[in-house]
Each structure stands twice: as structure tokens, then as C-alpha cells.
Amino acid sequence: EFNWDAHKRSLVLGAFFYGYILTQLPGGYLASRFGGKWLFGGGVLCTSVLTLLTPVAARTSFALLIVVRVLEGIGEGVTFPAMHAMWGSWAPPVDRSRLVSVTYAGSQFGTVVAQPISGILCASTFLGGWPSVFYVFGSLGVLWCIVWFIFAHSTPDKHPRISPAELHFIQSNVEPKDEVLSVPWWEIATSKRVWAISIAHFCNNWGFYTLLTCLPTYLKDVLKFDIQQDGFMSALPYLVMWITINLFGLLADYLRQHNILNTTQTRKTMNAIGLSFPFCCTILFKAFFNHCSYAAAISMICLATAFSGAAFSGFNTNHVDIGSRYAGILMGITNTWATIPGFAGPAVVGLLTEHNVSKDQWQIVFYISAAVYLFGVVAYTLLGTGKEQPWN
């Protein structure tokens, strides 16, 4: 309908991240100060309403669409820090991995559901075809927010329906959080433990965004595969990752509960698995893809995403371990760094392959991703910890 060139399409996709990165740190602070319930719900509500307005904005002007996309990112940017702030009050140490993992796994499951449904809606005449995607998912987001505002609560002591036994268990295992009035910004900024999480978070997202946003372009333009023609196959890596995020969360808590590994060892092990296996797969991509079928290529991508699910029980849960009082702020800090690959990664890929889409040029892309993965493993292994920090 719009006949946008590649540059305009990249602007539309990247505009979200420009807004998203702006509210990571403010979102973490506000969630730690006032609780995550209203901030999280408000962020989703804002994004849902703007999603409903997207078709109108696109048909009005390209500039208005970019503004809407940036505002969507601003609304969505507070959600992960708010979620972490809530788990800082709700998640006992022995259940922390599975609880944090299952919430973040929802992002993958949403993609699994949304991709094939979006394809069906686009091909239909319902509400004009492609606009129906935004109307349907925007409406579902608004309805979900109503349920969230009714049933969710920032802390266990504010929940009117929690059982006395559960409240006692949580309060016995999770230190109560006073209102955050003074944040130890300098201590956090200079903490090598926070930098360990930030580096791992950045490296994981660099590889992940390259794997699932740029690799389909390689398969299509260089190898003449096109997984985007098949909604299910396009969603399959996300389905695999959704499953493994939950499984590794259960495994991590099992290792902790049975004293097989302590918290530090568990986090480092999960992080190493989550980044090392994609590192190996990325190294092998060119050699493997040159002599493989369509199904084998998808299987290789799924293998990489399967093991990357372990990282959610590594660095991604570690904020709550080292600083539960400031978990939202810590997530805001590390996710700020981790958002950069959302627009920098595709830009680097575009720079390397713009004038030459040969396999050799793409091999450079894969090697860069592999090096980033490896750096994340080494840095977190050397600097990471599962111990609560003195400034908490």
C-alpha cells in the first residue's frame, strides 16, 4: 500500500527502539519508588492504544507514523524494569529463576501466537486486511490491562487475596522493601557486578537480534530460502525458545534448592550455556547453510535459540540476586545497554552487506556475532556473582 523503500522500512522498525531506550532508567526508578503495578500496566496500556492508532497514523503521514512508533517504545520501555521491581518483592531466592523466566518467556510465546495470526489477518478482508493486525492486538492489550489493574499488586502485603501462609513464606524469604528515597547511583555505576550483567545483556541481545532479525534476510537473499513465507516456520524458533526458557528456569531452581550449585555458580553456568551454544552455532552457520536443506537451516536456528533460553536464568535473573531493592533500576540500566543492538546490530549488518550480499560478507556478520557472544561469556564468568551487594 505504501511502497516504502528499505530505508523507510528500517526507520519504521527502528523508531520503536529509539523510544524504548529513553524510558528504561526512568522506568526502573519509578517502579522502585512507587511500585511496578501501575507503571507496568500503564506502559502496556499506552502501547496498546498507540497500536490501535497505527493504521491511521500510517495513512496520514510517514512522519506521524514514526512519532507513534517512538511513543510506543517509550510506553513499552518501562515494562521490563517494572516487572523486575515487582519480582524483587515477590520472588523468593529458591523460586527466582523459574518465576523471572516464565514472565520473560511470555514475550517469546506472544511472538509464536502473533506471527501466524498476523499472516492470516493480513491475507483476509477483516477490517481492511493488514490494519486488522493492529486493531486486534491493540484491543487485546487494552482488555488485558483491565484484568491486570484488577488482580495485580506491587507487593505481597498489598494483595487482598493472598493466603496468610503464602504471605508469611514470601516475607520470610524476601527482605521487605522500604520506600526507595535515596538510590546509591555511584555504587551501582561502579559495581563490576552490574557491569557484568550489562555486558552479558548487551552481548546476548546483539546475537539474538542478529539471529532472528537479520538471519532470515541471509537465508532469503543469499541462500534463496524464505522462512517468512511460512508463518509457522518463522515462529518456530520463538516457540522453541519459549519452551527452553521455562525448562532452564526449572533446572536452575532445582540446582539451587538441592544445593548442587550455589547462586553464583548457577547464574554463571546458565549464562555460559545461553551464550556459548549460540556462539558455536554462529561460527558454523556458513559451513552448515551452504550444504543444507530448508528444514535443516530452520533446525540449526532453533538449536541456537533453544540453548539461548538458558541465559534468562543467568544474567537476566541476576539483578534480583545482587540488588533486589533496586532490581527495577538495575534492569533499567542493563536493558538500556541491551537495547542498543536493536538498532546498531541491523545497521552494522546493513553496512557490511549493502553493496555485496555474498556469503563471504555475511560470514563477517556471523564472526562479529560470535565474538560478541564469546565476550559476554568471558566477562560475566569473570565479573558476575549471585551474592547480594553491600549497597542493597
From TrEMBL:
Receptor for CM101, a polysaccharide produced by group B Streptococcus with antipathoangiogenic properties. It is found in: Basolateral cell membrane; Cytoplasmic vesicle, Secretory vesicle membrane; Cytoplasmic vesicle, Secretory vesicle, Synaptic vesicle membrane; Lysosome membrane. Keywords: Cell membrane, Cytoplasmic vesicle, Glycoprotein, Lysosome, Membrane, Symport, Synapse, Transmembrane, Transmembrane helix, Transport. GO terms for molecular function: symporter activity. It holds the Pfam family MFS_1. Residues 1-388 form the Major facilitator superfamily (MFS) profile domain. This is Sialin. GO terms for biological process: carboxylic acid transport; monoatomic anion transport.
